[in-house]
Amino acid sequence: MENNQKIAVVTGASAGIGEACARALAADGWTVVLAARRLERLEKIAAEIGGRAVQLDVTDDQAVEKFSAELGACDLLVNNAGGARGLDAIEDANLEDWRWMYDTNVLGTLRMTKALMPALLEANGLVINIGSVAGRVPYVGGAGYNAAKHGVAAMSRVLRLETHDKPLRVCEIDPGRVETDFSLLRFKGDEERARQVYEGKLNLQAEDIGEAVRWVASLPAHVNIDTMLIMPADQV
């Protein structure tokens, strides 16, 4: 890659918000490294936007270390990989679902940020963590995902405190209800239950969050957007 190219890494880039972020950044002149587990989908998107596809599971320590070692330069990290599993009450909580949510949302964000920190500091870079309104507002059945996204929020704020005097900016973007495969994954393939989450509502689209990421990443180095809450007009 040319030394003057801006390099963005987007995790969870094979669909939904991650794909939208990759497309928006590429259209704004970034060279995008798309990272996710579903390589075939990544390669299709990467071919369309002139990016590079890398198969990556953010819950795998060795895979993240290998990715970091092979990446080289990095100006922007979008920690988007995450998700929810289940909508059980705490008394019925599935511990494996909770472990997956914490490992993917919280530790996945930690692994990527820690691994790419030297390159980001070298580049006077930017970290954008995709959080959720669930990291601000608890709801019945959401304890596992609430806990994970509260963890992402706390990590984002501490990282901002720890690096405010270093060449790194940190932003947390918290979307509300976005119509993607999120609920399909949460309900483990139950299409009817997933459809009911969005039916009759004014939903955000993945492209709305992609545009927010593009805008934050386009700002000059002296501007830091600490947090951004993005809601559909009918959600409060």
TrEMBL record:
Keywords: Oxidoreductase. Pfam families: adh_short. GO terms for molecular function: oxidoreductase activity, acting on the CH-OH group of donors, NAD or NADP as acceptor. The keyword Oxidoreductase applies. It comes from the Bacteria. Belongs to the short-chain dehydrogenases/reductases (SDR) family. This is SDR family oxidoreductase.
